[in-house]
């Protein structure tokens, strides 16, 4: 059984590699057969896969963080306050930042989450994905950095009540290398938006890290 599973795993990995290399070959073929076109296509792929300054900026967040969260379920209801402990680490050669929100109690329920943040060299935007124990879908987002260093995020996720796709907006402001604030706004059914969450993140000191 183990041998079968191992073979299946190698087949799946091999298939993914073929898809990736096939995509590269298709790009080269579309560009044309001459060597100069092949060189240009190869350079484009290298530029796409090579970490740059924005990836270095993301890597500066590596470490353990404490995140004070204020969450509004409705505009006219009192907020729910909680504190999350999160760990950021660089993965895949520094191309992405992996985020782990460690399991915690949230209004009597266990909450945990995983996320990835990256920077797309071609689209020139930040990209992110998020999963947590309060859902079974995947939220995805795109972010644009402003001149002041803040990032405007737009998230898309499934609304479990309506069953439709829901848009959320967020503004991430960097206070310092050890502090940032994320303010999230949720789009309401009537087209207006409400402030749904504020996250105040501070880097843990070495003596208090997990």
Give the overall average pLDDT.
Answer: 86
Overall CATH class of the largest domain: Mainly Beta
Class inferred from helices and paired strands: alpha+beta
Strand order of the largest sheet: 1-2-3-4-5-6-7-8-9-10
Strand content is over 45%
| H-E order | HHHEEEEEEEEEE
Low-confidence stretches: 1-19
Structure explained in plain terms:
The structure is a single chain. With 210 residues, the protein is of the alpha+beta class. It folds into 2 domains: 2-49, no CATH class; 54-208, Beta Barrel (Lipocalin), CATH 2.40.128.20. It is 25% helix and 47% strand. It contains 3 helices and 10 strands, in the order αααββββββββββ. The protein has helices spanning 2-31, 35-49, 53-59; strands spanning 63-71, 80-91, 96-106, 109-120, 125-132, 139-145, 151-158, 165-176, 179-187, 193-203. It has a 10-stranded antiparallel β-barrel with strand order 1-2-3-4-5-6-7-8-9-10. Helix 1 (2-31) crosses helix 2 (35-49). The relative contact order is 0.11.
Question: What's a quick, concise take on this entry?
Answer:
The chain is an alpha+beta fold and 210 residues long.
